[in-house]
Write a structure and sequence with these properties.
Number of helices: 2
Helix content: under 10%
Shape: elongated
Distance between the termini: 62 Å
Number of strands: 22
Strand content: over 45%
Order of helices and strands: EEEEEEEEEEEEEEEEEHEEHEEE
Amino acid sequence: MIRPELLMLAGSALNAAAVPGASGAAPRAAALELRSRGHSVRLPAEPYRAADGRWGVRAAAALVGPGAPAVPVPPDLPAVRLEAGVWRVRLIVAGRLRNRAFDLAADADARPSAAPGLALAAGRGGRAEVRVEAPPSAAEVERVRVRPHGVRVEGLLHGSGPTCLLRARRHGTELPVAPELRTDRRGTLFTLDLPLGRMAEAVPRADGAEVRWGIHFRPASANDLVAGLPRTDLADPRSALRIPDATVRPGRPCPPLRVRVFHDGPRPGGGTALVVGVRPLSDPPPPGGDA
């Protein structure tokens, strides 16, 4: 095990540099290796001249944990996707006769990364470890499309495959719905076309007031997952994450509907809840803002 000249995890970017040993010639090749329970991934490394004149090896990579966006940050680094677990950090150096592997040492007070689910720490014997955690269960909204005849919500589920339903706020009415689900490397992608006509009929309001709905995913043995943004530090998400109001015409016999979609929060546990407000229109829609 060797003590590196540089070893840090900034966000999702892992940077490492170390001098493996006394040598008069630069290594023929080198790699940064992350190893966990018999699985390993290698990324290219390059030689450099250390301050004392010896040859060292350095590498940088973007780590992509479970549930992280497909495009790493920063995007110009070679990326490696890691499953949940503990990954040892090593340098592999190709010499004239054989390859040599060097575990890197980590400081005992290594700080966690700002990227969720990633941390650099000292493991047994002081060996450097990258600890990768699976994301908590969540229903993350990635895109909302308000169209002339409907509203489509697309997102990512972290966790088991649950039942989906719409719940009218302050009314308790629930509507079961069946989103389209498909498996992705990041988890389960969902696409939901909101049944606006059923939503307008389920809670009739004589005064034509708006009824607000939330999207809930209900696992078999856990609390509901409320669709929204699982993490945000915005003090006022409704103002910062604006989605234009629109008049939507689902088709006969449903009247035109005024639809508002917004992120409500922050919630007590952090993040937002996506809210869909539906109001039947009896008068001509106001000018502007039609889908």
